[in-house]
Amino acid sequence: MPQRTTSPARSTPPGSRRNACWSASESTKFLTTDDRAMVALSNGLRNVPTTESSAKSPDLKPDPKFETFVKIFSNPHTTTTPVTAAGSACQELFNGFVDKWQAGRVDDLQAGLDDIDKQIDAQLANVEGGQDVP
To answer: Tens digit of pLDDT for each residue in 83-105?
Structure first.
């Protein structure tokens, strides 16, 4: 990995608590924002890189076991649940529905999906101050 040449940690006395905090902060920032660092971690740990740009790096040596996951991660149509003010409430509502479906306690899948869709919309509206959750 490339070595950093400047660091706020160098302006504090060695062994000081502030020095350790800056070092941890700088390390975290470096390991989560620098493509070369992420590629080196991915190559060393044999895992999926964590950003689109690091996944496209020519220096990446993908593990054949993870090749499918790298392709999925790199696909522009791959999405994730968006972050909302409701936090994980929407996922919890949907997971509860899935549990009921898998247990055979949902007679009409489409009606159940429509209902959970309305509940999620209501949950989102509620956290935005729009209405009560059913």
So the answer is: 888 888 899 999 999 999 999 99
- For tokens 């496209």, name the residue: 56
pTM of the predicted structure, to 2 decimals: 0.48
Work out whether the CA dihedral 20, 25, 28, 30 comes out positive or negative. Answer: negative
> For residues 32 and 114, which has the higher predicted lDDT (pLDDT)?
114
Measured CA distances, 70 to 48, 49, 59, 66, 111 (Å)? 6, 8, 14, 6, 35
The candidate with the shortest Cα–Cα distance to 44, out of 107, 96, 1, is 1
Residue-range domain boundaries for the chain: 8-74, 89-127
10 pLDDT tier (thresholds 50, 70, 90): very low
User: Residue 42 CA to chain centroid, in angstroms?
Assistant: 16
Count of beta carbons in the 10 Å neighbourhood of residue 77:
5
Helix (H) or strand (E) holding 120: helix 109-127
Distance (Å, rounded) from C-alpha 49 to C-alpha 52? Answer: 8
Angle of CA points 98, 73, 30, to nearest 5° = 115
